[in-house]
Amino acid sequence: MPNAEQSVHWNQAAGPRWATLADRTDKLFGAVTSALLKFAEVQDGEAVLDVGCGCGVTSLAVAQQAGTVLGVDFSAPMLAVAKQRARAAGLSNLRFLEADASIHPFDRQRFDLLISQLGVMFFDEPVRAFANLYGALRPGGRLRIACFRGLAENDWFSVPLAAARKIVAVPSPGNPTAPGPTSLADPDHVRTVLRAAGFGSIELRPLNVLLPAGTRAEAVQLFLRVGSLSRALAGASEDERAAVNAALEEALRDYESSGEVELGAGLWLVSARA
Questions:
Q1: DSSP state for residue 240 in the 8-state scheme
Q2: Fewest Cβ atoms closer than 10 Å to its Cβ: which of 7, 89, 139, 223?
């Protein structure tokens, strides 16, 4: 089954934590959301597919402008938050689907626009996945996604992992295009995948933002619960976790201003057409 490991991770490990922290992570990635929405140029009446919609922040925002929005994710805990938010907002043009977007049989040529905020980097077979999504777009339909660049361009990843590496064994990056948050970091790889899936007019635009992670104490707890560091600490002892906590709090001093930690993140805004 494609993406089986990712499905387990986002339903049993990461998903419940991200769901609990939805309001905090919305604030954390607020600058990314704003940039993606501007980049997407959603038009009145459009049918929009939001891939890897998570807790629904992008889906809800797009539904204010589009005709209809379908948010897709295979994390049931995160979708539960998204659905509750949609009910509270009274958005009748928005619905959510629990499914693997890489293989789900979408209605062909149904959507005018495909968007994704940090939700398309985890496919086991990216060409197959994007080809499936291509089939869901109408001729001339637009793809607009935000994805991370490499570790070296993302303090959000590198700073916590560097602090932990002094105490616990942090896995080496391995295959840079393997499923994970930076699998689409190489622009040539992105172009190759999208072309093979059928897309044309492919462009990548760099986006650099600061991610506000709260006070140092709040930032440490956030990193211990979500992101690459949480995975690296999966088998750590309580003593090791405490030592990483202390090392990370010290490392974050250099990124603190006016009582709040801000870490740089480098992303791509990717556009393409069906």
A1: H
A2: 139
Per domain, the residue ranges of the chain are: 4-150+176-212+266-273
CB atoms within 10 A of CB 11: 17
| pLDDT above 90 (res 26) | yes
Q: Report the pLDDT value the prediction gives residue 264, as an integer from 0 to 100.
A: 96
Q: Are strands 68-73 and 260-273 parallel, antiparallel or unpaired?
A: unpaired
Is 150:185 a contact under the CB 8 Å cutoff? yes
Position 170 pLDDT exceeds 90: no
| Cβ(160)–Cβ(247) below 8 Å | no
Measured CA to CA, the distance from residue 104 to residue 19 in angstroms comes to 23
Length of the chain: 274
Return all residues near 205 (Cβ < 8 A) that are at least 6 apart: 39, 268, 269, 270, 271
Task: Please say whether the beta carbons of 96 and 73 come within 8 A.
Answer: yes
pLDDT tens track for 179-223: 999 999 999 999 999 999 999 999 999 999 999 999 999 999 998
Please say if the pLDDT value at position 174 is more than 80.
Answer: no
The dihedral sign for the CA sequence 198, 70, 7, 159: positive
Which CATH number does the domain 4-150+176-212+266-273 belong to among 1.10.10.10, 3.40.50.20, 3.40.50.150, 1.10.443.10? 3.40.50.150
- Cβ contact 177:236 at 8 Å: no
